[in-house]
Amino acid sequence: MRKNTNIISSAIAFVSTFLILLVIFYFRFRPLHFYPIGDNLDESWKAALAYAGEKRLRFGTDIAFTGGPLSGIYTRIFQDGITFQLAIYSILIPIYIGTSLAYLLQKNGSLLAARILIITLTVICLFVQDDVFLLSIPFLAAVVGIPSATGASRCISVFGAALAGVVSLAKFSVFPLALLCLIAADVSDLQRKRLPLHLAVMGLGFCIAFIGSGQDRSQIVPFILSSLQVSSGYSSAMSIPGPLVEVAAYIAASLLFMALILYVVYKNELIDTIARRILISLVFLAFVFIGFKAGFVRHDLHSTIAWNVLTFALLTFVATTRGKNIFFAAVLMAAASIIPPYILLPSATTKLLNDNILVLARNAGAETSLLKVFVVAPERWLTDLQSAQTRTKALLASNSGLQKYQGTIDVIPSNQSLAIAAGANYHPRPTIQEYTTYNSPLISRNRDFYQSEKAPDYIVFAPGSIDDRHPASTEGSLWPLFFTRYEPVDERPQGLILAKRTNPIDKLESETVSVEAGIGQEVTVPQSDGPLMMAVHIRPRLLGKIVNIMYRPPGTQLTVTYDDGATTSYRLIPEMAEAGFLLSPLVNTTSDYVLVSAGRTDFPALRHARSIKITMGLGGQLAYDDKIRIDFTQLNAEKLIAGNKNALVDRTIRKADGLTALLRENALKEPTFVTVPEGVLAHAPMSLHVGAAGASRISLAFGLRSGAWQNGGGSDGACFLVKASDQIMMNRCLNPKDIEADRREQSVTLDIPKGSSILTLETACGANCSWDWTYWARASLD
Question: Which of 533, 538, 629 is nearest to 587 (CA)?
């Protein structure tokens, strides 16, 4: 009788714990909540992955990115065609996490106090990063499977292996962790003389889900290889430095945690054999290390991922331990690891403890309604998602204008979702977004794409990148290919429209000059009549390769001194730099690109490089060889001039001619006096001069950039003045926020007083200068 009572009590305890944990993780993860397409940088790559899945593009061949055909599990972006699959897989994730933790608590006979503490810490922990949910799957499979030999643990562990294969198709960073954890679980099984199933089941889950998503089975190996190519370049290319004190705190906390684990397992608190003690220690170490990489390579708010991983690892450890002293030590560490995300996240988006619980409650209401609809009327659930997607696409398409291009189109700037929303025949290059083309294999993939028959008919193009990279690093090594195979024919708000040429320009690249230099050595840039490409060959040392794997290599900087004396530093990605990019003249805007692609590099608006210098961050000389080689390659300006004669080129040249007089007298100066698509930004207040000797009239065009008054811009207006000595020739004030007529570019022609040799063009602030993005588009003299 007592035995039956114990069984019933045990079952009640397990079920109640499981249900509470399931509710918490379910409402955190929101598995039935999918978002419609968005239009910012992150939303665009998410939309592009969903589009690739819908159009059955081949992941691994057509697409090489960190996400796979089931990326919707991670991105939560609506993907038609496999929506129900994504929903089922997403529901399984919180179910599996809740089951695993409840089982660990039950198996180790944890007291009611332990359950309450774990549930409390789970509620207040900021599991806002979906990475934690996905990474926890293979981790829990190993933690459940290694110490125990019961049938229940084996079922939970093996099911986790299958689910790990599935979620690896959502975010590939799960894949290496899954390999490590599941190999450890299989080694444990071999020690028990049991059939090692984990890796095999993971592979089976991976393959079935891959094919079930609409992908061809022949793409499985290419997908893995391409994902490894993407992963291998991530640390050096996408790293962002952050506070070293936070890195040190995480490492210290992790080392303290690992010491606690080693103490417990070697005291026989968890498992019996030495081999399994080592295996379970390695699993915890791998999980915390992957969290470290996910959080501190790109050290911005990504660091919250690392702290969430550490908290989850500690909570899992608490669930597996029995000793009271160890238990309370781990609980204190878990509580401490929750604090950093609350400090780090900005107040506008973070949740203090009360807010966090309120958000969970709000999610609970919304997700309960969704779950009810999903169970009772799944077709309505899907229709609601499709309707939201249609409405959002229509809104985005109205601001795009890309639907008029009937051929295939690729988008270089990170706003691919606009082309998708417009219903254009979006035909992406493998890397999807420009900043991820960061190593030789990925650059080669894109080059082959644009040189093949699959090359799109049109490219939306604009220079500029992320993380202070050189603006010409945007698919930088491919610019000569763009010059030869595409011509600029139109301009949209998203960028230039490059159309495929009927007759490509042949043999554009000419003489190459190679220079051997040292880190920190200034190198004179060869003079060139045409565009000048530069390739920098930096050789990593063995230590640099190890640091790249374990953390991230030191940052590399390119410092350029221009012919006007200005000096600018840019982030340099070694493998991208080795493939080359356009160094001179500097291309900051779409107008600059049109001029350079047409061989017109002599305009004053274009700044030419005079010298360059490569420098390294702390430890750079340990990570890289002291000597570097720089190749300068000139492009044939005459061939570019002959090959680019159309209305857009002519219009851009006339526009550049209209600014020559202004730029001849006034040196560009970042950030207040620089070229912009409209002409030149002359942020108010600013006074410029134009030589007017012998001229009788001046034709002007001016205005305020749209960002000054749109999308949150707060300009209260600005004034434009033209003076000849003390005589005011024009004083025109614009207030585009309130007056619609002031939003378009203004133009005027003024008679110049006789005897005037210098004119002054001024921009003056309203009551506030903060948003006065005033520009001059023309200052032509007759």
Answer: 533
